[in-house]
Amino acid sequence: MNRENKRKQFEKGYYKTHGCSDSFTCKVCGRLVVPTGAGSNHRNHCPNCLSSLHLDIEPGDREADCGGIMEPVGVWVRKNGEWALIHRCRRCGHLSSNRVAADDNPMKLMSIAMKPLSQPPFPLEKIEEMTTLMGGDGQLSYG
């Protein structure tokens, strides 16, 4: 059974309290994704490309009708130091946060984390200009 059809079989909220031990094939990279190695009972994205499917409105509810590809667009660090992925649905734009799994591709994670630094919304020369204006020491110089 594929994971898109699970909501038809289980009552609402089932996956909030029950782990999922089913394997699935990633719709983006085509890899077989197995539940072992995630470090959790709730595997919700491919450990290779970090993509997922838009199945939930709230985690585990399987109530979303969209079914679009959820692409990883960012990472953030929770209060306890745990990393989480930010996914955005290619079809409807929905954003969600999912904890990073133990076997997630570390190079892909770092690539996502570094993207804002490698592609700033301003020319890099602006940093040098601002540093010079600040006297090179982080303090604004007047006069």
UniProtKB/TrEMBL annotation:
Q: Which Pfam families match?
A: RNHCP
- Segments forming domain RNHCP: 22-110
**What is this protein's record name?**
RNHCP domain-containing protein
Species source reads Evtepia gabavorous
